[in-house]
């Protein structure tokens, strides 16, 4: 492919993969069976210096292949999906995007769709049917999806980027490095969990604290940990990937590669032992909320990572027959496939009757869209609370779903531990 | 006022080839790409970062490496297109984020040094990075 025999796009892709692989010090490229990246084409930066807004070949060449010249976008050769992106075409006006932008988005979906890109349009492809099996090699972006794929599912991927997933999609290759290699997947740190996680907020705080403890090393959670649900591990991983850079973790008896502590550690002693206790839980809560002081909330953001159908049902149940404050906007984020399910189950109507909106495809951290006049945000997501203050310049409170619903009703933040 | 200069050489492994020179921008904290920098100005925006509000544009960025979202490479790629990229990158922790980010930023980059760069290089030192030769020349101006 590097010699151009399979066309100019694959030649550019191989050139990038070779530059990237040698930067890593990787010895070879390996085959992947599943790619998750972004072909998003509507942001101002991606749109800069184009002859036409729908010049998707140039966008693909520049941003998915790191190529200076424009080549024709070929078919993907492995199953490939689009992660979260900027525009919910159903709610584009609320998000502050023009009809033209939404139409450009639809056009890009058709262009790349015909070339093999599945517009799952979510940070959680594993919630909408893209569930790799243990041992599969992937090239995925999106830190919260990567940590879920590695730890919970036992598939193998590093945190890839836009350019490497673009190249992987049309070559089926990625550098053999990091978490593709068995010995690099073993636990390095043991965290004794004394403050037992019960609620979603607990799992988020545990993740946030563990991320700060181990940064991008691999923690093993030890202690009496109650059986988690998928949403708990989604929340835990997203938080740990935000505060640190956790891409892999082990919970004995729960995650894919840890039937026991011994298996997770590979028979080695952990490099470091840490304790997560009530004080560590409180510290995590204080760290996330350190940037917030104004308790007058005007925007409540739920669904980061995107909500599961179970979470949407919970929210609809909490909002049923109630009205949020007229001074507060409530946006609930979920994959477009789950929103369709919510439409059919009546959850969308319940949330809308209460004054909220069900958004798909996007989130405020990705598209920087917040309702007009937003000063203070509240969210049940550690990840969103970690990033939104830097991205939007707005104070952001983190708490439980109940705290957030209360803030939506009252316009006041009363969250605590 | 007497001005003395002191020159120190560090050797390391080439990540991205090329030669560049600039003043050092040193941070012992990792950097987030997406949600941690403003690519239009090359400024660090992460809330609790020690260099928040300062720009690395045109500087030799000396840092442990990348953290955070997989948007890292795309945002540093943007710094190249917007003219706010660092002149070179010297880092100590290899990850896919920093490797791909350095490759698409297309500035000279090095890692695996024979001396701890945080002990040798101070903020504002004049640094010449010859990644092809695996050589970093640090000139400290003392006045």
Q: What do you see in this structure?
A:
The complex is a heterodimer of chains A (417) and B (143). Chain A has helices at 8-24, 44-47, 56-65, 99-114, 143-153, 162-171, 200-214, 230-243, 261-265, 278-289, 309-319, 336-345, 347-353, 364-367, 382-392, 401-410; strands at residues 29-31, 34-37, 79-82, 117-118, 138-140, 173-175, 189-193, 219-222, 272-276, 299-302, 329-333, 356-359, 376-379, 395-398. In chain A, strand 7, helix 7 (200-214) and strand 8 (219-222) form a beta-alpha-beta unit. Chain A has three domains: 8-180, Aconitase, domain 3, CATH 3.30.499; 186-287, no CATH class; 291-410, Aconitase, domain 3 (2-Layer Sandwich), CATH 3.30.499.10. Chain A has 417 residues and is of the alpha/beta class. In chain A, helix 11 (309-319) runs parallel beside helix 13. Chain B has 143 residues and is an alpha/beta fold. Chain B has a single domain (4-142), classed as Glucose Oxidase, domain 1, CATH 3.50.30.10. In chain B, helix 1 (72-82) runs parallel beside helix 2. Chain B is globular and about 40 Å long. Chain A binds chain B through residues 16, 19-20, 23-25, 38, 45, 48-49, 63, 66, 141-143, 146, 158-164, 175, 177-178, 215-216, 241-242, 244-245, 287, 290-291, 365, 386-387, 389-391, and chain B through 13, 15-16, 30, 32, 35-36, 39, 45-48, 66-74, 77-78, 81-82, 93-97, 99-104, 109.
């Amino acid at each position: 492919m590097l010699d151009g025999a399979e066309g100019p796009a694959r030649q550019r892709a191989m050139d990038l993969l070779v530059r990237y692989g040698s930067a890593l010090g990787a010895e070879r490229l390996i085959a992947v069976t599943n790619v998750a990246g972004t072909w998003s084409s509507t942001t101002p930066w991606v749109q800069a210096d184009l002859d036409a807004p729908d010049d998707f070949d140039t966008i693909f060449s520049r941003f998915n292949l790191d190529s200076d010249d424009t080549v024709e976008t070929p078919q993907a050769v492995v199953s490939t999906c689009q992660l979260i992106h900027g525009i919910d075409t159903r709610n584009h006006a609320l998000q502050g995007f023009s009809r033209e932008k939404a139409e450009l988005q639809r056009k890009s979906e058709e262009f790349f769709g015909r070339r093999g890109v599945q517009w799952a349009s979510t940070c959680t492809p594993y919630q909408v049917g893209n569930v790799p099996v243990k041992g599969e090699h992937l090239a995925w972006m999106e830190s919260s999806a990567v940590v879920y794929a590695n730890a919970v599912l036992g598939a193998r991927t590093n945190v890839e980027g836009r350019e490497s997933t673009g190249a992987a999609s049309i070559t089926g290759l990625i550098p053999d490095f990091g978490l593709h290699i068995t010995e690099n997947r073993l636990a390095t740190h043991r965290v004794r969990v004394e403050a037992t996680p019960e609620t979603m907020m607990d799992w988020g705080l545990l993740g946030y604290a563990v991320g700060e403890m181990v940064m991008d090393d691999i923690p093993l959670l030890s202690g009496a940990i109650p059986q988690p649900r998928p949403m708990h591990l989604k929340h835990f991983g997203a938080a740990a990937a935000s505060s640190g850079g956790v891409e892999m973790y082990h919970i004995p008896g729960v995650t894919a590669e840890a039937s026991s502590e011994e298996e997770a550690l590979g028979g080695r002693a952990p490099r470091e032992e840490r304790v997560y206790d009530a004080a560590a839980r409180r510290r995590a809560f204080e760290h996330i909320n350190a940037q917030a002081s104004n308790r007058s909330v005007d925007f409540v953001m739920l669904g980061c990572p995107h909500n599961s159908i179970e979470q949407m049902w919970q929210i609809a149940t909490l909002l049923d027959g109630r009205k949020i404050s007229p001074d507060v906007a409530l946006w609930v984020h979920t994959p477009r496939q789950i929103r369709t399910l919510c439409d059919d189950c009546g959850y969308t109507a319940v949330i809308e009757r209460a004054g909220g909106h069900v958004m798909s495809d996007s989130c405020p951290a990705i598209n920087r869209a917040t309702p007009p006049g937003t000063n203070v945000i509240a969210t049940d997501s550690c990840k969103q609370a970690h990033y939104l203050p830097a991205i939007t310049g707005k104070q952001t409170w983190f708490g439980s779903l109940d705290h957030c619903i209360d803030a939506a009703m009252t316009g006041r933040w009363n969250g605590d531990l | 006022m007497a001005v003395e200069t002191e020159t120190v050489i560090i050797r390391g492994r080439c990540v991205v080839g090329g030669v560049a020179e600039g003043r050092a921008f040193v941070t012992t904290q990792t950097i987030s790409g997406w949600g941690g920098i403003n690519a239009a100005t090359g400024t660090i925006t992460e809330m609790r970062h020690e260099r928040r509000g300062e720009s690395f544009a045109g500087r030799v960025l000396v840092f442990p490496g990348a953290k955070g979202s997989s948007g890292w490479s795309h945002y540093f790629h943007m710094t190249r297109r917007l003219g706010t990229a660092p002149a070179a990158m010297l880092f100590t922790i290899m990850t896919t984020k920093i490797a791909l980010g350095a490759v698409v930023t297309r500035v000279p980059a090095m890692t695996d040094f024979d001396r701890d760069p945080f002990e040798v290089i101070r903020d504002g030192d004049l640094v010449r990075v010859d990644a092809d030769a695996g050589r970093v020349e640090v000139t400290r101006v003392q006045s």
